[in-house]
């Protein structure tokens, strides 16, 4: 009995020690967005930084500052108390913070502020409110003209345009060629936000005209989502064109603010045609559009007369046997209205090409086995074009400038890592926010010519200082083709012991337009990786072929069979893990969301003896049920590629499920509709296999806000229980 009591006491003391140790570890409330202490565990930042001409504007909650980029001298432009005193004398509304404020036309005296339902103009000199306008946009943000004197946004059934220079505010229903009715939408992003489209209105440079999308969805099949926030649940259908089905039709209208008239560009038949990257000419007289056929393998750059809508000509065309993927509007050369920059992957990587307005190629400005990520802007005289690129390596992102006249490039940023920049109006200064695997965040202002002092706005401390954290390693393995290098990260427990055996969770996305691993803080190892490492797991992440920022061949090798090559690459990662003596090969799990949900399910089904547990969030199960633009770009239509759709349909593999699989889906998912998950559950029931299911009502394709902590508690507990 004494020996038994001593043993029980020893066990109790061990458990007490384990509890105390767990109490010291970071929790989901610390590590997951929406958690009570999450903000304290991410690198510090300055939100809302912007340029007003060559003056850096630094917003805060109570104070708005101006910073001289030459010497860092700081002055106060406005305080929240002063603004709210001025508002009290008008309509009594209040402003909560300066984060969503901006200045008009490079003038630091004319401040625009957002309050509920209104846009306020505040004079920082006189400390008075000089104007108000109603603001009630429908599912879209504000689009400003270049001088900030005009703005537009969608309203129910039409658009609203506000002109501060004349004091006018006008709602207009543009009408058009097709009859109006349910299913007609104005001024919002179209083509399901593919092709880099993120808005639906486009001001001319002089602010006199507004181009906008008009989308007719009336012919598109309704998908029956349900709103449960009523005693009797109500239908809340969305227009959802699936691959191979009838799609919407889009027109581009042009509203003339001087006459109040609207015309529509005389494009080709908008049936099965995509209109992308709407660009105005500098003189506000022409509109350029990159137009694609439904197969998305033939792009035409077409110019239109903005006054009449007449097509003036096809400047040039691009074709590709798989797909052409235009993501960027034209950029006209500053000070030279007859030349523009066009971005293309025609040589295998996204690069910059200089054209004249007749469509003649003048020169390719950048080249090499690296890609341009984005254009930042020009200097004052248009000599230099500034752009972001990963020339230093696939995990990097730096600012460069190219001399438009001779094509010579030079790097501007001074540190390895991933940079995010804003260029001042003259191009003389840059606000550079950068991070690296060992740098939480640094924000500097400096001259783009390398002269002068650097003004440091922020150097973030390690948000984990004093905390027990996981270690993160980065490396490469070969893809399934035996040639291509793939980058991986491995997040290990802080007390990692190579003599022990550890279970491993593979976190996967793997689809187009996303790169999980880059040289950012802790190699982009997320808070959840850190949490699971604290629970004794290793978390492994691999960017397979098909993911982003590695060039066209790397990305389009998955064409017509999404998920197949990607799974092969992920299994190369599994073989690498199995070669490590500290991996428990009988306890391998996998987790991902959206495309990663497809990958998780596919890996569990195609390799049932490898994976013991998985959690698939919002998974695509059958690509025939996915939306038309994305689905047909990468898979063609089900009619043209029946073998590919059949091969990638996970319903047909439901009988192969062996491990424990939890599927999580949002009840109101408008991107990957719930039918994917429900159909798969039915296939599993028919096959006598047994996945688990959890539904999040009220969320759309991901769980955000406070509920996200609940989501990751659910995911974590599932792995702890089953792995």
Would you mind describing this structure in some detail?
This protein has 723 residues and is of the alpha+beta class. The strands form eleven sheets. Strands 38-39-41-40-42-43-44-45 form an eight-stranded mixed beta sheet, sandwiched between helices. Strands 13, 14, 15, 20 and 21 form a five-stranded antiparallel beta sheet that branches. The model is unreliable at 1-21 (pLDDT under 50). It has eleven helices and 45 strands.
Give the overall form. globular
Oligomer: single chain
Major sheet strand order: 38-39-41-40-42-43-44-45
Low-confidence stretches: 1-21
What distance separates the N and C termini? 36 Å
Number of strands: 45
Separate helix tally: 11
Helices and strands: which structural class? alpha+beta
Largest sheet: 8 strands, mixed
Q: Please state the average pLDDT score.
A: 92
Keywords:
723 residues, alpha+beta, 8-stranded mixed β-sheet, 5-stranded antiparallel β-sheet, 11 helices, 35% strand, globular, serine-type peptidase activity
Summarize this, please?
With 723 residues, this protein is an alpha+beta fold.
What secondary-structure arrangement, pairings included, does this model have?
Layout: H1 2-24, H2 28-31, E1 50-52, E2 55-59, E3 63-67, E4 74-79, H3 80-88, E5 102-104, E6 107-115, E7 118-123, E8 128-134, E9 143-144, E10 150-155, E11 158-163, E12 168-172, E13 184-186, E14 201-203, E15 209-216, E16 222-223, E17 226-227, E18 234-235, E19 238-239, E20 249-256, E21 262-264, E22 273-280, E23 286-293, E24 298-305, E25 311-319, E26 331-332, E27 339-344, E28 351-356, E29 361-364, E30 372-378, E31 384-389, E32 398-403, E33 409-411, E34 418-423, E35 429-436, E36 439-447, E37 455-459, E38 471-478, E39 485-492, E40 502-507, H4 527-534, E41 538-542, H5 552-556, H6 564-578, E42 583-593, H7 595-606, E43 613-617, H8 628-635, H9 642-648, E44 660-666, H10 675-687, E45 692-696, H11 707-722
């Amino acid at each position: 009995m004494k020996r038994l009591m001593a043993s029980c006491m020893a066990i109790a003391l061990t458990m007490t020690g384990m509890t105390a140790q767990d109490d010291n570890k970071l929790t989901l409330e610390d590590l997951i967005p929406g958690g009570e202490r999450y903000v304290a565990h991410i690198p510090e930042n300055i939100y809302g930084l912007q340029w007003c001409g060559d003056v850096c504007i630094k917003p805060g909650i109570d104070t708005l500052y101006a910073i001289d980029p030459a010497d860092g001298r700081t002055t106060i432009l406005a305080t929240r108390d002063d603004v709210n005193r001025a508002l009290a004398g008008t309509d009594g509304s209040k402003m909560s913070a300066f984060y969503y404020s901006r200045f008009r036309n490079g003038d630091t005296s004319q401040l625009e502020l957002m309050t509920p339902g209104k846009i306020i103009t505040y004079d920082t000199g006189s400390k008075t409110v000089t104007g108000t306008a109603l603001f009630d946009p429908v599912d879209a943000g504000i689009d400003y003209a270049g001088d900030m004197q005009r703005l537009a946004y969608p309203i129910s059934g039409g658009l609203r345009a506000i002109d501060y220079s004349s004091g006018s505010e006008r709602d207009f229903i543009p009408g058009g060629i097709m009859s109006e009715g349910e299913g007609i939408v104005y001024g919002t992003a179209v083509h399901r936000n593919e092709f880099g489209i993120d808005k639906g209105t486009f001001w001319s440079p002089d602010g006199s005209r507004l181009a906008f999308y008009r989308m007719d969805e009336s012919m598109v099949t309704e998908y029956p989502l349900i709103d449960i926030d009523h005693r009797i649940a109500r239908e809340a259908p969305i227009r959802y064109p699936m691959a191979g089905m009838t799609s919407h039709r889009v027109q581009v209208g042009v509203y003339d603010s001087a006459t109040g008239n609207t015309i529509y560009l005389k494009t080709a038949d908008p049936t099965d045609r995509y209109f992308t990257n709407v660009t105005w000419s500098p003189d506000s007289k022409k509109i350029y559009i990159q137009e694609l056929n439904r197969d998305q393998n033939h792009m035409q750059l077409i110019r239109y007369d903005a006054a009449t809508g007449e097509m003036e000509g096809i400047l040039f065309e691009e074709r590709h046997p798989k797909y052409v993927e235009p993501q960027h509007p034209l950029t006209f050369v500053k000070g030279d209205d007859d030349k523009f920059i066009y971005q293309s992957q025609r040589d295998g990587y996204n690069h910059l090409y200089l054209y004249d307005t007749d469509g003649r190629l003048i020169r390719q400005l950048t080249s090499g086995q690296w890609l341009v990520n984005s254009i930042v802007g020009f200097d004052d005289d248009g000599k230099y074009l500034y752009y972001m690129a990963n020339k230093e390596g696939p995990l990097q992102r730096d600012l460069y400038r190219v001399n438009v006249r001779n094509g010579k490039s030079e790097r501007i940023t001074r540190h390895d890592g991933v940079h995010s920049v804003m260029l001042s109006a003259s191009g003389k200064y840059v606000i550079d926010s950068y991070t690296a695997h060992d740098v939480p965040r640094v924000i500097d202002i400096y001259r783009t010519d390398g002269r002068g002092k650097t003004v440091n706005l922020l150097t973030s401390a390690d948000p984990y200082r004093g905390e027990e954290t996981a270690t993160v390693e980065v490396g490469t393995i070969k893809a399934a083709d035996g040639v291509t290098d793939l980058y991986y990260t491995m997040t290990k427990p802080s007390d990692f012991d190579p003599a022990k055996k550890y279970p491993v969770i593979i976190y996967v996305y793997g689809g187009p337009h996303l790169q999980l691993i880059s040289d950012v803080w802790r190699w982009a190892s997320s808070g959840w990786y850190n949490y699971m490492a604290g629970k004794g797991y290793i978390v492994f992440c691999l960017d397979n072929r098909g993911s982003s920022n590695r060039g066209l061949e790397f990305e389009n090798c998955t064409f017509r069979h999404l998920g197949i090559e990607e799974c092969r690459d992920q299994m190369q990662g599994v073989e690498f893990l199995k070669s490590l003596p500290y991996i428990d090969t009988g306890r391998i799990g996998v987790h991902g969301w959206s495309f990663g949900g497809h990958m998780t399910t596919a890996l569990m089904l195609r390799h049932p003896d490898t994976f013991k547990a998985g959690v698939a969030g919002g998974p695509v199960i059958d690509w025939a049920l996915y939306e038309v633009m994305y689905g047909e770009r990468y898979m063609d239509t089900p009619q043209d590629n029946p073998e590919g759709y059949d091969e990638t349909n996970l319903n047909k593999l439901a009988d192969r499920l062996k491990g424990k699989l939890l599927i999580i889906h949002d009840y109101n998912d408008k991107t990957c509709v719930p039918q994917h998950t429900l159909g798969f559950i039915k296939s599993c029931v028919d096959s006598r296999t047994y996945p688990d299911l959890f539904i999040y009502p009220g969320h759309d394709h991901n769980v955000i806000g406070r509920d996200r902590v609940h989501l990751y508690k659910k995911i974590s507990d599932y792995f702890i229980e089953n792995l």
